[in-house]
Amino acid sequence: MYLLAGSEITTPLTLLKSGQLLALTPDCPGALFLQKAFYTEFVGPGAAVGGNLDVQCTAIYRVGNVRFCVPETYEERQQAFRKRIEYIARLQELMLVDAPLRRAGLVINQLGQWLGLQEAQKVPNELIASLVGLLPRNVEFARQQSVGSSAQAFDLAQLANSADH
User: Measured between alpha carbons, how far is 142 from 18 in angstroms, rounded to an integer?
Assistant: First the structure.
């Protein structure tokens, strides 16, 4: 696996649109939110980025310290693609939750697991909403509910019962 040094990276958006297949290093403490025309994708540690996957990316939101590498072997590329698919599949599972407030609470909780709670709190409501087909106000309300629940995690059952589709 070949690591990209700082001087080799122009701007992240230019890098993604170049068609070069990259991956975030597996031990990378950060992640990317890739905004497309109508939705946003999450790319976490170990996942493939760039190549043909992201040529239609319109903007990038970085969380934490992101390090790229070039997957050189067939196995490294397959592993990076599998990791990207895992992130997509998990968010797709959350998207199937009917109640918007419950879905918002679940995606916030998932981002907290992937990024850490402190980093997840920095992600704008609009980005989180576009990950799983929500309105930003649903994410904002779910965050307010989590702050009000002291140091404990969401009471997701209560959020689901109070959700009025």
Answer: 37
pTM of the model as a whole: 0.81
Instruction: Kindly give, in sequence order, each residue whose CB lies less than 8 Å from that of residue 66, ignoring residues fewer than 6 positions away.
Output: 24, 28, 30, 31, 32
CA 147 from chain centre, in angstroms, equals 21
Distance CA 35, CA 40 (A): 4
pLDDT (tens digit per residue) in 59-76: 899 998 888 899 999 999
Beta strand 48-50 with 68-70 is unpaired
Token digits of residue 78: 């397959």
Structure confidence by residue, pLDDT tens digits, 86-118: 999 999 999 999 999 999 999 999 999 999 989
Buried b (16+ CB within 10 A) or exposed e, 154-163: bebeebbeeb
* CA–CA separation, 139 and 129 (whole Å): 6
Sign of the C-alpha dihedral, residues 87, 93, 98, 103? negative
Among all chains, which residue has been given the structure tokens 């319109």?
Answer: 58
1-13: pLDDT as tens digits: 444 444 334 456 7
